[in-house]
Structure formats: structure tokens, C-alpha cells
Amino acid sequence: MKKIVIASSNEHKILEMKKILSPLNIKVVSAKEVLKKEYEDIEETGTTFIENAKLKAETISQKTKLPTIADDSGFCIKALNNEPGLYSARYAEAQGGYDNTFNILEERLKDKDRDASFVCVIAFARPDKPTEIFEGICNGFVNFPKRGDNGFGYDPIFVPNGMGRTFAELSDDEKCEISHRGLALEKFIEYLKKEEEQEQTK
Ligand code: IMP
């Protein structure tokens, strides 16, 4: 495999994924870079992270005829029945942005347990092979007020266990090493290495 496409239009996710995959000897490009004017956002109609990740990866792989990965991810707060979860991006949009969302979550979490996790599902789709799925979870807790300027989304209010700093206070390298996305992509990299070994012994 010489080239792999990332089926996302989220620039932060693309940057993180390119960084994590950089040790591989593979050219990593976004779907927008490949499809240019033909690129269209994909409506996330699935009811699980797996369904949405598969939908995005398979749609772009069919269009580009190239191996494609897609990430579907979300922020799950235990005391809120794992909300906003699958709807994390849409929830923040409906509240008018992340600052409003943090205020609303602080109110909803008054006197409640703060356990939370980030979940990431990576789907790997190819034109000639069944789609593979890789999952990563990063456990921690919600912390108010927000802290830090790095990263994106819910990063300023999430403290991963054992770190004492929010995701937004970590460097890009520190976040990618322990994050849900980093862990799922680590499994994906292991899978590629095993597959390559098998090909070579054929
Ligand atoms: P998706 O594009 O449907 O997968 O939406 C993912 C959404 O989950 C993002 O827009 C963020 O709101 C949230 N999210 C996922 N991963 C992260 C992360 O690493 N940091 C902060 N927020 C994240």
C-alpha cells in the first residue's frame, strides 16, 4: 500500500491522524486533497460509531478506489448516559459552540459523578477487501472551568486519568500517545504490519 486516504473534513482530526501515521512508509492524504471539487461531506446516518465510521470509509474508498480510513469518535459522560457520545459534534453545534456547551454541561453535572471517556472507531475500507474496525478508548473525568488552548472540541474540559492536565494542556505528541484516536490507530498500524509480514511469507 503506497497511499491511504483519510475520510474526514475535520482539520484537527486529519492533523492528528497524519501525525500518528507518519512513521509508516505510506503517503497519507485527506479525501478533500484527492477528490478536490468533487468532495462532499457525508451525512452521518448511523446509530453507532462503527456504522458511521464504516459509512464514511466505504463511501470515500468507493469514490477514490483507494484504501481509506475514517474516524468516528465522541465524548461520553457516564452520569449523562454516555451523552453527548455519537452526537458530540451536533450537540456542541446545537448549543452554539463549545464555550456554551461547557457551561451547559457544568450545570447538568452539578453534584454528579464526573467520569467520562473519549471513544474512537477507525474503519479501514479497501475496494477489494472487507472493511476492518479498530477501537480506542481513553478514560478520565470532566473538569471545569476549561483549561488549555491545544487540540479541539471537548479537549479543554477532559482530564485523562493519571495526567493531571486536560487534553488541551498536552502537547500534540502527548495527546496522540494516550488518546482514543492514538490507541485505535496503534491497533490499525499493528494490523498493517501483520498483513505485510503475511504477504512477504506467501
Ligand atoms: P464525528 O466527526 O462525528 O466523529 O464527531 C466527533 C466529535 O466528537 C468532534 O467534533 C468533537 O466534538 C468530539 N471529539 C472527538 N474526538 C475528540 C478529541 O480528540 N478531542 C475533542 N473532542 C473530540
N-to-C SSE series? EHEHHEEHHEEEHH
Strand content is: 15-25%
| SS element count, helices | 7
CATH architecture: Alpha-Beta Complex
How many separate domains? 1
What would you say about this model in short?
The chain has 202 residues and is α/β, with parallel strands linked by helices.
What's the topology here?
Layout: E1 3-6, H1 11-21, E2 27-30, H2 31-35, H3 49-64, E3 68-77, E4 83-85, H4 88-94, H5 98-108, E5 115-126, E6 129-142, E7 158-160, H6 172-178, H7 180-200
Parallel strand pairs: 1-2, 1-3
Antiparallel strand pairs: 3-4, 3-5, 5-6, 6-7
Residues 10, 44, 72-75, 88-89, 92, 118, 151-155, 167, 179, 181 line the site of inosinic acid.
Question: What does the model show?
Answer:
By secondary structure, this protein is α/β, with parallel strands linked by helices. The chain contains seven helices and seven strands; from the N terminus they run E-H-E-H-H-E-E-H-H-E-E-E-H-H. Strands 1, 2, 3, 4, 5, 6 and 7 form a seven-stranded mixed β-sheet that branches. The longest helix has 21 residues, at 180-200. It is globular, with a radius of gyration of 17 Å. Inosinic acid (IMP) binds at residues 10, 44, 72-75, 88-89, 92, 118, 151-155, 167, 179, 181.
